[in-house]
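User: Before I run my own analysis I want an independent prediction to cross-check against. Here's the chain; please return only the structure tokens and, at the end, one sentence I can use as a sanity check.
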Amino acid sequence: MIRTGNIAKYDYGNLIENELHYGQAFPPPYDLTAIPKEFPIFLGYGGSDELSEVKGVQLLLNDLKTHVANKLVVFFRKEYAHADFFMGTNVKQDLYDPIMSFFQVN
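Assistant: Structure tokens:
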């Protein structure tokens, strides 16, 4: 995704394998605009996460820009790295409590 700017299905690493699985040389992109606009989404990411770059999340959010506003919750913490989402000191208050509230509403 970072190299191409596309959120696509799994790339098997060679044209032949991709052709076998997808009928084309490169993996097809996901059409994120096909997600129902009223489908509840809680999206969390951190500014220090080496596995999920902020630029990549911004691409995703761009595809979701027409989503129903109260059905899309974006959680961002600049200081959060990947493991902070399950091992962070304040993760219960910062993330888990808001997620539970989100589930109760939706």
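Sanity check: Residues 36-105 form one domain.
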